[in-house]
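FAQ: What does the model actually see?

It sees only this:
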Amino acid sequence: MSTQQSQAPAPVAIAPAVQAATPAAPNRRVLLVAGVIVLIALGIGARMWYRSHYFVETENAYVSGHVHPVSSRISGVVTRVLVDDNQVVQEGDVIAELDPFDQGVKVEQIVAQIATAEQQVLQAQAQMRQVEAQAGAVAAQVVQSQAQLLRASQDAQRYGQLYTTQMKAVSKAELDGANAAQAVAVADLAARRDSAHAATAQIAAASAGRDVLKAQLQVLNVQLKDAQQQLAYNRILAPVSGRIGKRPVEVGMRVQPGQLLMAIVQDQVWVTANFKETQLAQLRQGQSVHVRIDALPGQLLVGRLDSFAPASGAQFALLPADNATGNFTKIVQRVPVKIVLDPNDVKALAGRLVPGMSALVEVEIHQGEADPAPAIRAAAR
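And it is asked to produce this:
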């Protein structure tokens, strides 16, 4: 019994040694996970390689549009505001009104001045007709004086022929009277002619005065048109159709010419993408573009590369960098590129696409002759 008890534990001691000597079997789960990771890494690498060779993309892009500032052309107090934030307006709609009292008074003053000037013109025309009549009378008197001078000259000549050294058919007194009458006729004709010249000058002066009054009347008519236009400026109209935004104007505000009252944003939008200058070599006008808007996840838009900016964004900065100062650091510049969206896509979004939204733009650089837009739309669906 003692011998059997001493030999019993021997198999138990040998079993762990045998197990320790046998190599552990590989874990299939670990191998599967490692394989999946390798496949994912290969897929990501292949995708990155493919996109780097066949696509150009940028996240430096945003939606642009026409934003029209609305301001007043005259100063005045706002009496009515007829629109609210985000309201749709049509071109020519009245969106605000100013107090028209000041401009109305000015119009009435000019109308009164025009009436006065018209009466002055009529008075000048009457005076001119009177002067012309007087000139006609003076001209008749000149003709009469010429006839009297002719008769006096003939009488003096006849008396001179009748009173000579050989013949004294008339008296010396009669000859002297005839000569005196001739001299009187000459002086009278000269006086009548001077009166005629004075009447002609009066006609010219009256005509000039009438023309001055007519010119003043024309100036007043122009001033009246300007005053009426200023009065019309009290009604502020929408310059374009769109939606109201940024509306700080309120009733009771006193506004000045050029002061921003509100802005109108048109529905027409496009995308401005700032591509790196190293990416431009592979871009061509007319290429189809994929556009994704951050505010519209899952929505794929189709656009067309419309045009390139004439200069980089740095050239349009308020303070362009001066590279000749000695502290030059080469930085990859970006050039704005305009991308026009499909009108059907813009219309389908029904105003959800607004200027200022961020976008992701990608361009397939190896595009064939056929338009890839249908394939892109099919992939989007």
